[in-house]
Design brief:
- The structure holds three protein chains of three kinds.
- Chain A is of the alpha+beta class.
- Chain A has three helices and three strands, in the order H-H-E-H-E-E.
- Chain A has a domain of about 40 residues.
- A two-stranded antiparallel sheet of chain A has the order 2-3.
- The relative contact order of chain A is 0.07.
- In chain B, strand 7, helix 10 and strand 8 form a beta-alpha-beta unit.
- Chain B is globular and about 65 Å long.
- The N and C termini of chain C lie far apart (about 70 Å).
- In chain C, helix 10 runs antiparallel to helix 11 and helix 15 crosses helix 16.
- Chain C folds into three domains: about 290 residues, no CATH class; about 110 residues, no CATH class; about 70 residues, Arc Repressor Mutant, subunit A.
- Classes of the chains: A alpha+beta, B alpha/beta, C alpha+beta.
- Chains in contact: A-B, A-C, B-C.
- Strand 3 of chain A pairs antiparallel with strand 10 of chain C, so a sheet runs across the interface.
Chain lengths: ~90, ~500, ~475
């Protein structure tokens, strides 16, 4: 499954990363090299093997339904690139 | 001043308690060292001069009042990898995308250090978002290796390793997802530990790959490292994956360990970790260190971890997948950098991320998006998580049937030249080949120096234990260090 | 038989009534100033981690049991990725291939017929924030107060065939959610939301037609109107042999039509994977059984009980069980005075009528069930007439006073003393000789006139039955002096 330049464009879109046409060929080559390398897993027999998502196999961590203080609005606003009317401002959503 | 910065933490503690010097003097000595050396080595992104001196002054009050009963790190400087959130202090992750981000909360590990009286001296350089093995992928420029300035210090926690090596700080925190503490520790000749997954809370550590990330630290001695790791360990209600397991007093265990403690300790040496292409001197140093352990009474057994050859591939599927998800939040809406050059929301997102992230981070995000996308999930991500199970089982087998501790090289080579691997991601990835399996299995790993190669660059060995066997690793490492007496300090600078 | 058949499935989102968010500690309160209910987790700050609110799980288990679902022993939270300003982490934490509840269903009643609607799954997830679009400036404003509020998503089987059935299913779900006390069911405020999938196929055809999704239906009326519209739109297209496009549409209530939603900027590929920050959720047998024991009586159970215990018909049983608080009110009133039919009638006519007029709901009802029961008792014991009772009820509604106190204070007690009434009657007969004559000549309709006169004299307090019988007797022959001792 060779990685195509269109695949790269698609993946860039999925990742919300702008990617110019000039960047695509080199990026494709690098990504393809990495994917080729990791594809060696295909040769491992994993039939009936459970996937691991937590190494220690633990389950159930909860918190009680208790409200704690909200962040002060100044701290919310302080880090925002564009903040007005108590809200984060972004280019208009169509 | 030079005298103060080359002391061990226990010596600093004694000096403070006996009033040989004050906490402020101790902090000043380290700040001075940073000022003198940072331009050359670039190990710090921010230096917290005023806050550190204020903390040191507060420490003096505590020391005067409580003396020997004061918390163990009162007045001791600690440097923090700039991936860990520090309330009120800019946290950059060495990325342009977090420019200007001032966290409103402290990382749990940092909070624990503060509670223990430590002085936060500054934020150290790293590979952007901890993605790298050389500390070259930083928006703030590369970090240089004190043993040879044209070499890399390793990464991603390169700044934290160098800080300890250079005497900029006696202790530092790092994070380790695939070797990011152990490999730079090895390349700079200091001690470093990645604790068991779940031992230290990840709350406030900026996520790279959540199922592997773990906070740990660096020190110039095993005793100092034991104290540091103990201070930051423990269950945290804010991190569901942190584990409810008692934290022993690692330092006390190391100190009370008898000389014959290693008698009968079975050290497993996995044959798969001695591969063609690794630097001959690294292999030789490792084998020589086995003799030291034998001399200390340990039994060396050859073991097999048959799925080792697949670990790196599994790692480079799982980590980019999780990274692509963890880094989706950097969109220019709530914090950090936003591109001003856009005509629409979509352009704002795409340009902010394209301009804000460095090339390696973007590559990993794209690999991650790819392996999780429709049609590829089973072949890549699911498969990698299954292989991960096989790798975990390899270690379980080894510890259940053959050995108590596993010993391997940390890195296939000593420090390489700046620029040598930076343009070839895959070559760079291979630098982690001996460290990533330990993260995949969530095990504790300790890196300690065992000698120098012919170029005068440090070589390290890695000790690996079963989950939560940190004390065993500290005891074995301390016994080895007493025998080998490697001096981690690079005080005289060329 | 109809030429076409519609196939409808609903995806319903319900906000859970926890105090704090599903994975974070800020409040879930509605109507606060923008971005004042946030915390590091809600803002998706770097380094923060989600921790699951146990109460949200309890609520979802309750709903699963109430809708006859299987509670899965192991369920898993997954990340669903897309970029949107109101989605702080760039992913929503949801459940994907391992939801908490599966394979349930509920019965609905439409046109007197019972029908089973299957529920495919119910899972837990977090809500997004809100984007406010400004027409004036080229900006949108993002408020994250709602981000992280716990939701359950309830996915039905495509078992509905008409808009009416879909409406009935939605109402039934809302009723269950409210009985369980886990969601306020307020569609206008968005705490209950609905997306509908609808396709049309020729009757008898097994294969499904092309599916259209209608998003954000925020009232029962919209659900029904949008589906009716969409079914006729698709039917018309089929009739003209035109293609139905698989797409997402929105209901435009002003135009009374659905319209196509502009296709998304980003390809839909959510890249789900298990969230490594959260542990698998394991709900053991004990947890399920303990929750089952704590379940309240559910609407359909109360409905059946009202019919059996109180002999109500479907109409009254349905009205009285629509809201848990009404059913409880009814139970309380009937327990005090066992007159189920009369109390049912009073609640559904007088009480509902007044509440409706004042724009109140049952939770703010000024008449206590004790007082309503007392009122019906006064009627049943002939202390007041039904007509006077309405006057008394009026005052009860306004003041919350007890009917006894009102009756006494305003001297509304019924006059049931024959001597008093006869005296009045005789006086009226004497004063209206013309009308008496007419009556006696066979114009019996005139009786109404005399009843009216008595009621007028007694301000309506005379016992109507007694007035009738005494009038008939006194009007028969020449007036004689009435003497009770002769009886």
């Amino acid at each position: 499954m060779a990685l195509t330049e269109d695949d790269v464009r698609h993946v860039a879109k999925l990742s919300a990363l702008e990617c110019s046409d000039e960047e695509i060929p080199a990026l494709r080559a690098t990504l393809a090299e990495i994917l080729d390398y990791v594809h060696r897993l295909a040769s491992v027999n994993t039939e009936g093997i459970e996937p691991t998502s937590h190494v220690h196999g633990v389950v159930n961590a909860f918190r009680d339904d208790i409200i704690k203080d909200s962040l002060p609005l100044e701290e919310v606003a302080g880090n925002a690139p564009d903040f007005a009317a108590g809200s984060f401002r972004v280019p208009r959503i169509i | 001043m030079e005298r103060l910065i080359s002391l061990s933490v226990s010596e600093m503690r004694n000096g403070l308690l006996q009033k040989d010097f004050s906490a402020v003097e101790l902090t000043q000595a380290h700040l001075q060292r940073i000022r003198k050396t940072n331009e050359e080595f670039n190990s710090f992104i921010s230096i917290c001069e005023d806050a550190a001196l204020a903390q040191a002054a507060a420490a003096e009050t505590v020391l005067a009042a409580e003396q020997g009963a004061s918390p163990a790190l009162t007045g001791i400087p600690v440097a923090i990898k700039d991936l860990l959130l520090t309330k009120g202090i800019e946290t950059t992750c060495a990325s342009k995308i977090l420019t200007g981000f001032i966290p409103p909360y402290d990382c749990t590990a940092v909070a624990k250090l503060k509670e223990a009286g430590a002085v936060i001296i500054g934020k150290t350089n790293l590979d952007e978002f901890a993605m790298g093995s050389s500390n070259e992928y930083s928006a703030y420029g590369p970090v240089r290796n004190p043993w040879n300035k044209s070499c890399v210090p390793g990464g991603s926690s390169g700044g934290s390793a160098v800080a300890v090596c250079l005497g900029q700080s006696p202790l530092s925190l790092g994070t380790d997802t695939g070797g990011s503490i152990r490999q730079p520790a090895s390349l700079t000749g200091v001690c470093g530990m990645k604790p068991t997954y779940g031992r230290v809370s990840r709350y406030g550590a900026v996520a790279y790959a959540s199922s592997l990330d773990q906070i740990g630290g660096f020190a110039r001695s095993i005793e100092d490292l034991a104290l540091l790791i103990r201070t930051i360990s423990g269950k945290d209600p804010n991190d569901s994956t942190s584990m409810e397991v008692d934290v022993p007093d690692y330092l006390a265990e190391v100190r009370t360990a008898s000389k014959t403690q290693l008698q009968g300790l079975r050290i497993g040496v996995p044959k798969e970790y001695f591969i063609p292409g690794m630097q001959e001197e690294v292999e030789k140093s490792c084998l020589a260190s086995l003799d030291v352990f034998r001399h200390l009474g340990a039994e060396i057994v050859e073991i097999s971890l048959p799925h080792t050859e697949y670990a790196l591939a599994a790692y480079y599927i799982i980590t980019p997948a999780e990274a692509s998800s963890n880094l989706a939040r950097y969109d220019g809406v709530r914090y950090g950098f936003r591109s001003q050059d856009h005509d629409s929301l979509a352009e704002m997102f795409e340009r902010t991320r394209a301009q804000g992230f460095g090339a390696e981070v973007k590559r990993r995000i794209m690999i991650g998006s790819y392996v999780l996308s429709a049609g590829y999930y089973d072949a890549y991500y699911l498969k990698a998580q299954q292989v991960r199970t096989l790798i975990i089982n390899d270690f379980k087998q080894a510890f259940a049937n053959h050995c108590d501790v596993i010993l391997t090289p940390v890195s296939p080579t000593t420090a390489f030249k700046i620029g040598e691997k930076a343009d070839s991601p895959l070559t760079m990835y291979l630098a982690d080949i001996f460290t990533v399996p330990i993260n995949l299995a969530g095990l504790p790993g300790l890196s300690l120096p065992c000698g120098l190669d012919s170029a005068g660059l440090p070589v390290g060995i890695q000790l690996v234990g079963p989950p939560f066997a940190e004390p065993r690793l500290f005891i074995a490492a301390a016994a080895f260090a007493r025998e080998v007496a490697f001096d981690s300090r690079k005080m005289a600078l060329s | 038989m109809e030429k076409y058949e519609a196939v409808i499935g609903l995806e319903v989102h319900a906000q859970l009534l926890t105090d704090s968010k599903i994975f974070a500690t800020s409040s879930t309160a509605a109507g606060k100033e923008p971005n004042t209910l946030t915390d590091p987790v809600t803002l998706g700050l770097p380094g923060c981690l989600p921790v699951l609110n146990k109460r949200a799980v309890d609520f979802a288990i309750k709903l699963g049991l109430a809708t006859n679902c299987e509670i899965q022993r192991v369920s898993v939270f997954a990340r669903k990725h897309y970029f949107y300003p109101d989605l702080p982490k760039g992913y929503q934490i949801s459940q994907y291939d391992k939801p908490l509840c599966t394979r349930g269903g509920i019965d609905i009643r439409v046109g007197g017929q019972k029908k089973h609607i299957g529920i495919t799954r119910i899972h837990l997830e977090e809500d997004a924030g809100k984007n406010i679009h400004s027409d004036a400036a080229a900006v949108s404003l993002v408020d994250l107060n709602r981000a992280g509020v716990p939701l359950v998503e309830i996915v039905s089987e495509p078992d509905m065939r008409t808009a009416q059935e879909a409406g009935a299913y939605m109402r039934q779900l809302r009723q269950i959610l409210r009985y369980l006390g886990i969601c306020d069911g307020n569609m206008e405020e968005g705490s209950l939301r609905c997306d509908a999938n609808v396709s049309v196929r020729p009757a008898g055809e097994a294969k499904l037609g092309t599916k259209v999704e209608i998003k954000n239906l925020n009232s029962f009326r919209f659900v029904e109107k949008a589906l009716d519209y969409e079914i006729s739109r698709q039917t018309a297209l089929l009739d003209q042999a035109k293609e139905i496009v698989q797409e997402t549409r929105l209901w435009d209530d002003q135009k009374g039509a659905t319209r196509s939603m502009r296709s998304k900027e980003y390809a839909e590929d959510y890249r789900y994977f298990p969230d490594p920050d959260l542990l698998p959720l394991v709900v053991g047998h004990d947890w399920v059984e303990k929750t089952r024991e704590g379940l309240p009586e559910l609407p359909h159970q109360v409905f059946l009980r009202f019919k059996q215990m109180y002999g109500l018909d479907d109409y009254y049983a349905e009205l009285l069980t629509e809201e848990k608080i009404t059913a409880h009110y009814y139970d309380q009133a009937v327990a005090i005075h066992h007159s189920p039919a009369s109390i049912a009638n009073w609640i559904t006519t007088e009480l509902f009528g007044r509440l409706n007029k004042e724009g109140l709901d049952m939770s703010r009802c000024p008449v206590s069930p004790e007082n309503l029961a007392a009122l019906v008792t006064l009627i049943d014991e002939d202390v007041i007439s039904g007509k006077i009772a309405k006057t008394v009820f009026d005052e009860m509604f306004q003041t919350g006073a007890s009917p006894k106190a009102i009756v006494e204070a305003r001297k509304l007690k019924q006059i049931s003393d024959p001597a008093v009434i006869i005296e009045l009657i005789d006086e009226i007969i004497k004063n209206n000789p013309k009308q008496v004559e007419e009556y006696r000549q066979g114009k019996t309709k005139m009786l109404g006139f005399f009843v009216g006169q008595v009621m007028k004299e007694t301000e309506g307090k005379a016992n109507p039955a007694l007035v009738n019988s005494l009038l008939e007797e006194r009007l028969k022959g020449p007036v004689a002096k009435y003497s009770p001792c002769c009886e």
